[in-house]
Amino acid sequence: MRKSKILASAVSVALVASIAATAAISASAIGSVEEIKDHKMGIVGSFNNWSTEGEVPMNDDDGDGIWEGTVDIENVTAEMIVEATMDDGAGNQIPRGKTGITFKVRLDSNWADSWGDYEASYVRTGNSQTNCVVEAKEGTHVKIHVKLDTTRNAPEAIEAGEVEATDPVDYLLIPVSYTVEEVAAAAAPATQTSAAPATQTSTATTTTPAASTATTTTSTPAGTTSANSPATGDTTSAIALVAVVLASLGTAVVMTKKASAKD
């Protein structure tokens, strides 16, 4: 009898826990992927201190079931960069080994329905998905392009064998994907420095062609000895010398004649 009472009590506790868990999940979700299109979607996170004010809207303009939005952060501050954590299954948040800008996608600016990075089934509820995290540097300008695809299950759930690729979309397994674009800061306008014009130095350079040295060549008649023409001063001296020699010869001839006459 005692064993039966203990067993009955255990079953009752298990049922109550199961009902409470089911109620918690049901209360935190509209429960239908098809109903999402009739609501609004937004992105909230550490970039706006998790406030409804500054929540970035997402849109599905073409009605394909894929919601898109861009978080444009012109200047990443130290307050936006936080440590990313995850649920350990016992209600404790443990570090994921990443720090950065964290965010989630939520329905109707309410935490009752929200999505983030994939989280294992044993800790998943309507609002327990792990925050998405984007690594960023303080002082940079980043754009985070976010998508919520309501047309398929999270690839991680398929890889984990939790669902098949062909299974209907599970409301709690709608995947959030995102890419980060780092925008380069605008370049400062170039300072125009008025530099003094370079001084042009005019240098006259005479180029002498190779082997173009001017040489004066005097044609010498056959039978004569070729000699370089003397300078002007040397020519005058030579003429005077010849005159002296001729005068001496003339004197010698006269004296010779006189001597012959005496004899």
Characterization of this structure:
- Strands 1, 2, 4, 5, 6 and 7 form a 6-stranded antiparallel sheet that branches.
- With 263 residues, the chain is an alpha+beta fold.
- The N terminus and C terminus are likely disordered.
- It has a domain of 161 residues.
- It is built from 3 helices and 9 strands, in the order H-E-E-E-E-E-E-E-E-H-E-H.
Task: Write a concise synopsis of the structure shown.
The chain is α+β, with helices and mostly antiparallel strands and 263 residues long. The chain has three helices and nine strands, in the order H-E-E-E-E-E-E-E-E-H-E-H.
Order of helices and strands: HEEEEEEEEHEH
Shape, principal axes of CA atoms: globular
Query: What's the total count of β strands?
Result: 9
Number of helices: 3
Low-confidence stretches: 1-8, 10-26, 196-263
Based on CA atoms alone, the radius of gyration comes out at: 55 Å
Helix-strand makeup class: alpha+beta
Averaged pLDDT, please? 72
Helix content: 10-25%
Oligomeric state, counting identical vs distinct chains: single chain
Report the biggest beta sheet as strand number plus sense, adding barrel if it closes: 6 strands, antiparallel
Distance from N terminus to C terminus (CA atoms, Å) equals: 200 Å
Proportion in β-strands: 15-25%
